[in-house]
Batch of 2 targets.
Target 1
Amino acid sequence: MHSTIKRPRYLSYCLYSSLILLAFFVLAPVAWLLLMSLSSPTDLTKVPLQWIPSQWDFSRYAQLLDGDNGSGERFLAAMLNSLIIATSATVIALFAGVLAAYAFSRRNASMLLMFAFLATIMMPPVTYILPLYSAFSDLGILNTKVALIICYCAMLIPFAIWLMKTNIDVLPEEIEQAAMIEGAGTLYTLRKVVLPIILPAIGATAMLSFLTAWDEFFYALIFSSDLSAKTIPVAIADFSAGRVTDFGVIASVGVLASLPPVIVALFFQRFIVSGLVGGSVKG
Amino acid sequence: MSDSTSSFISNQVSTPPPGQVSGSTDASQRQQSYNNTNRDEAILSIRSLYKSYYDASILQDINLDINSGDFLVLVGPSGCGKSTLLSCIGGLTDVTSGEIYCKGKDISQLDPAKRDIAMVFQSYALFPNMTVAQNIGFGLEVRKVPAAKRTQKIQQVAEILHLEPLLDRTPAQLSGGQRQRVAMGRALVRDPTLFLFDEPLSNLDAKLRLTMRTEIKHLHQRLGGTMVYVTHDQVEAMTLASKIVVLNQGVIQQFGTPDEVYKRPANTFVAEFMGSPAMNLMQAKVLVEAGDLKIQIQREDEPPIIFSEPAATDALRAFANRSVIVGLRPESISDLPARDPQRSHSVDCRIDYLEGIGSDVYATLKIAGGDVISRLHGDSSVRAGDRQQLHFDLSNISYFDPSSQLRI
C-alpha cells in the first residue's frame, strides 16, 4: 500500500541498520543520563562500571523536587527563573520578529538593517560581555531576570526576523492585497490573515527560540550571582562545582531540566503542519 | 463612412457625453469632454494618469470617464499596462502622476481600504485559513457588521452564486470554478461603488470560462454594479463590455462601446486586435473620376477591384490620388449578398485555401499582395483553387491613413 516499488533486500538492511545506528547515537546519552540519575553513588564509581544499577535510587529526584531542602530550593528556583526568562524572551522575540519580518518582506524596510541585525549574532558573545556588564551595572539590573531577558531578546530577534521573513516572502501577496481592498488595515491583515497562514513558521521559531534561551549558559553565568536570576544551565554547573561531585545529582537535574523543552516541543509540533496555504490561489 | 473622429487621436481619447452612445465629436468637443462637470457626474474618472517604473513608462496619459452601471473592459495584448491600470484604480500600485476620481473625489492617494471598491483577483486570492462563509464575510467583519446581518448577507450572496452547500468548506476543498465563485462572492457581498476584475476567468478551462462569462454578464444586469474588467481575450471584452478601452504599450488606442470599437476601429492596431479573425487591411488608392470618389485595390495577375465610395467624407477626399489602407471584416467579404445592395460590390476571386469551423468557412485569398480572409456560409461547397463570386459589403468599411495608421 505504501510503496509499490519493491526495494532490493540489501538496501532494506542498509536502511534499517543506519536507522538503528542513528537511534543509538541520539538515544544512548539520554538513556545513560537516566541510568545515572537512578544509580547509587557506589555503582557509579565502581571499576569496572556497573552499567545496570544494582538498586533503583529515586532519592535524588525526591530531594530536588523538595523545596525545603538546600539543593531542592536551588534547583526549583533555577527552573522557575529559566521558565520565566526563556518564555518572556521567546514571546518578545516572536512579537517583534513577526512585525519586523513583515516590514522587511512587504514594506520595503532596508535590507541593510536586516543584515546589520544578523551580523550581531555572528559575533562571539564574549565580545559583548564587558560592555554589557558595565551597561547593566550602570542600570542596576545585574543579577536580575530582566538583564537576561534583554540579552536573550537581542540574540533571538534577528534570528526570528530571518526565519519569519523567509516564510512571509513566499506567501502570495494577492492574499494580503485582497484583505486590504476588503478594508482591513495592516494590523488586522496581519492578525487575521498572515499570522494564521504562517503559524507553522511561528511554531518552529518559538520552539527554537525557547530552546536557545533555555540552554544559554555564558551570559547567564556572568550576569547572575544568586537564586534571583540563576538559570538551569548555571545551576547544573553549580551542582558539579562542589568538592565532592555526585554525578547522579547532576544527571537528575539534567533529566528534569530537559523536560520543559520536550513539553514545549510536543506542544508546538502540532502547529508545524504543511499545506496551510493550499487552495488560496489558483489550483 | 462617417465623418466621425470620435474614437482616437494619438494618445487622447474622447468620451461621448452621457446618453450619447456612438455620437461624433469634433476636436473642440473632445477637449471639453474632460471638464469637471463630467468628472463629478461620472462614477470613475481618470485624468492624465501616468505610471512608470524607473525609466520604463507603463501608462501614459490615461483619461477616461465611466458612469454608474457601466461595464468597462480594459483589453490589450500582454504587457500593455491593463492590469497596472486596474491596480492603480484599486490602490495596489502608486500612480506616478495624475488623478483618479471616484464619485467626484480624488482617491489616487487614498489607502485601498478606504476606496470602497471590491476586487476579484486573477489568482482568486482567497484566505486559506478561513471557510467559504468567512471568506465572503471578511469585508463585513472588518466593517464590524453585526453577526446576524453578516450571516444573512452571506446567505444571499451564496444563493446568487450557488455556493450554499460549500459555505463550511475551506478553499483547499474547492474546485477552480468554485474558488472563482467565492472570490466573486467576497466582492459582491459588500455592495461597493466599483468592482474590479483582474482577468478572473483566465485560470478556468474553456467550457467553465464560457459559463462564468455568462454568469458575470447576468450578475451585472441583475445587480447593476459599476465594473472595471481586465482581459486579454477580445471575445470576452466584446460580450461583457458596455464600454471598451483598448490599450497598447500603455497608451489608450480607443475608448468606446463594443460596437464602435468593432465597426469603427480608431487605428490599424485596434482593427487587427479586435475580432477573430482580424480585420483585413488592404493597400488601396483613392481615385477621383468626374467628382466621384473611387477606391482601387490592386491584385496580382488579376484586374484591380474598383468600387465607388458615395459616402466619402472630406477627410477621405483629401486623400485623392493617394494611398489609403482599406479595412474590411471577414464577414463583410462573403459569398452571400450584402444587406444593402447599394453598398455591395461583387468581385470574382480565386480562393487560395479554406478553413471550415462548422458554422462558417473561412476562405483565404490574395489581394494587394497580402492574405485576405473572407467568411463564407458553412454550407459553401467551394474548394481551394476555385474561383468564386464574392460580395464586398461596404457599409462598414474603414479607411486608415498609411503614414499615421489612424482612421480617416
Target 2
Amino acid sequence: MTERRMPEGPFSGGCQCGAVRFRALALRDNPHVCYCRMCQKATGNLFTALVGVYHENLTWTRGRPAEFMSSDLAARGFCANCGTSLYYRSNGGPHVSMSIGAFDEPHRIPLWYQLGMEGKHPSLMHLADIEEAGTTESAMAEDAATIRVSNHQHPDHDTATWMPALGALP
Amino acid sequence: MTTHTGGCQCGAIRYATDMQPVGVHVCHCRMCQKAVGGPFAVICPVLKTHFRVTRGEMAYFHSSDVARRGYCRDCGTPLTFEYPHVEDLGLLVGTFDDPSQVAPEIQYGNESRVAWYHTLNSLPGDAPTYANDPAMLQRISGSNHQHPDHDTDHWTPHPGGQRQ
C-alpha cells in the first residue's frame, strides 16, 4: 500500500455567506464520509464528508457558528445566517470534525474511509455511472452569467472585510 | 395524496409533496458544495404547486440575486434550492424521510467535482455506526434530538444556540 499523507496546513474556510470563517492549522489523519441518518439530516444530503481538527488548531476568524445538539452527546455547527453545515463535534472530544465542503480548497483534502454503512443509500452505488451534463457554464450559460454578477457567496479565500448578504429573508 | 414527506433535523420544519421529483440531479457546483458543506448536493425538483410546508417557516439565504436556499434557522439543515421565478423547487435529498426513494439520474456543475467522486464506493469501511461501541450507540439513541422519519402530530424541537 502506498503511504498516505494528509496535506499540510494551514487551511481556511467558512460558510456560504461569509458570516462565519475559520482557520485550521493542521488536519487530523481521519478524512471520511459518514452515511448515518443523523449526518444526512444535518446536511440535507446523502452523507457528510468530514475531517478532524484538534480544538487547539482551530480558530474562528470571523463570526461564530450556531449549534444544534443532535443528541446529548454531540453538536452540529452551522451558520445561522445562511445555513451552511460547518461541523460535527462530540462533547468532550479532542477535535471538531469539519465539513470538507466548507473549506476554501476542498479538492486538497482526500478521503480515506467510510462510516455509518447502515444509512448508505442504493443510489450511491452507481454514482460514477450517472450521465454528465457538463459544467455550470456550459449547461446553463445565461443563468450562470446572471449568477456570476450577483454571487453572494464568500470567495474561497480570507477577506479583510466582508458584508454578508442578509439571510432569513422571506 | 402525499407522495413524500420530510423536514429538517430538529423537526421545526416539515414538508410534504404529492409528486415524485423529476430530473433528480447531483450538483457539484461550488455554490451547492458550500450550502451543504459537502462535496455535492443532490437536488430533487418538484412543482411548487405540489409542495407545501406543513410545519414551521423556512429561512432563506439568497446565494445570488437569482436563487435562494431554504434552511432551518434552528438547526441549520439545508432544505431547498430555488429560482423564485421558475415553477419548480429543488428539495435536498437528505431531508426526505426516505431518501432512498429518490435517486439521481444526471450530474451538473462538473467544473468543481471533487477528484475522489468516482472512488467513493471503493473506500475502506463496511461497519454500521458505532458497531465497535454499542454502549455509545445506546447513549446516542437514548438522547436523540432528531425528528423521526415520519410526520408527528406534536413535536417540540430541541433548542439550538449560538456557540460561545
